[in-house]
Amino acid sequence: MTATVHIAGLGPGDPSLLTVATRELLASGRPVLLRTRHHPTVAALPGAGDWESCDDLYQSATSFDDVYSRVVERVLDRARAAGELTYAVPGHPLVAERTVTALLAAAKAQGVQARVYPALSFADLAATALGIDFGAVQLCDALDLRIDPQRPALVSQVFDRDSATALKLALLDVYPDGHRVTVLRALGTAAEELRELPLGELDHRPAGYLDAVFVPAIAPIEDLRRFDGLFAVVERLHAPGGCPWDREQTHETLRPHLLEESYEALEAIDAGDPAKLAEELGDVLLQVLMHAEVAKRLDEFAFADIAEHIARKLIRRHPHVFGDTVAKTADEVYQNWEALKQAEKPRSSILEGVPATLPALAASQAIQGRARRIGFDWPDIEGPLDKLVEEVHEFARAQAGDGDREDEFGDILFVLANIAQRLGIDAEQALRGANAKFRRRFGHVEQLAAERTLDLKSLDLPALDALWDEAKSIEPHP
Which of 442, 417, 415 is nearest to 431 (CA)? Predict the structure, then answer.
């Protein structure tokens, strides 16, 4: 015989709100298993004292997930033993009741029939108590919070002060400290209370298992700590009536800004300044959003196309994470990535795909790195070092004003890029570092000259060298 579980909701707390169908079910004589006795309705039900509960599981389990798993296991065991079982839970069985969703999945997998009996939920009473239409309100779990601040939210599972503190800290990552929230306490009971307070004071009083928190929405312009808020701000700038300058931009006019902001982010990385890097990465992200808005205006593509493209690419090219492929080292990951990229975009030349707009040193390293993958390179470091000497001699023989001199100098840089890559050195980064070092030391030279009222332009080379050596001593080599 197939076992059957009748899943009944006990409503929000007032026994008078229990549905007729659930009353008849509980009075039918079938065995009843309570998820918890800690619910006002239970004490008012005839025979409830003889019903089994799952409260003991909360004492021995290591986590809520462990509790829910054990509850489901107990429900199914009792149902198979008795043939039919009524499993009673607070509120509505399918509103913020994770054991029921887990039970329905397990019952289906194990061939146990399950029937859900609707009931009033805490959300129904919250809508009445707050006097608002809950059509746009999101129901959130404080233990697994995912919230859209631009929509009002009702948060459950705020059952003690610790959970209230954890919820407050999570919300403060998005909402301002003074954002007004409403604590809904013991809805549907004689102790019902609504208390509005600043978010920062959410955990200043004890919380109970019948508590919930209503969090009003914030305007897009206030939602500044999440991507959605930034997206809304940029969208508003490009909308009719927005910023005239933004609305006139094209991909071409924005191009230099994207390049400039990218280099400023690199500069912040070189400086080891996290706060500056956060600011500059924001500027880079703004450029992406600006291009997305231009594309939307021109009916070319939407930001969703950008997000989907990169997300799908990451999933495809990480089969060791999202599939069954095994890659235990970074090198194996790289090899898989290259193979997948070649399969997706077959190229007639291994050098295809190196952007022509890359800085010259970076492009040189990229080109030579690709050639090295097929063995087109010197076998060891001695080869490029010898070649460097050869190219320097050829450059020395070239005549001033001759086009060959520029060509030979380019060959020197090309070999230097090869040597740097072999040694694991980013040539572009190395030159940026050298430039930065020169800036610092020359700044010391200028400062020393100013302190001694010296005119740098009037000094001869030995005097300038002396100042330079002194500047180097101020900032010694690492």
Answer: 417
